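Researcher: Next sequence.
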Amino acid sequence: MLISSAFAADAAAAAPDWTSFLPLIIIFVLFWFMLIRPQMKQAKQHRAMVAALQKGDEVAVAGGIIGKITKVTDDFVDVEIAPEINIHVQKHAVQTLLPKGTIKAL
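Model: Next structure:
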C-alpha cells in the first residue's frame, strides 16, 4: 500500500506544463516594451537626423563641441567651431541638431 502511493506522487509532480514558462514570457515582454523598443526608436531617430544633416545646420558633437556645419560628405562633416576654424568629424559623432541661432545666443 505504501509503495503505490509513493509512485503516484512522483508521477503527478513530474508533469510540466506551459504555465511554468509564463514568468519568463512576461519578463521578456516587459524588457521589450521598457528597454529594447525605446532604444530601437531612439536609434532610428538618430539615424534619420544624421542622414538629414546639411550645410548651415548648428550641431553639438559627442565631445561637447558646438558649431555650424560647413561641408557634408558621405561619412564626415566639417564643423566650424570659430571663425576660420573647422574640425572634421564623423557623421555619427553628431549628437544633437540645435535650433537655428543657438550659437549666437551663447
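Model: The mean pLDDT is 87. The CA atoms of residues 26 and 71 lie 49 Å apart.
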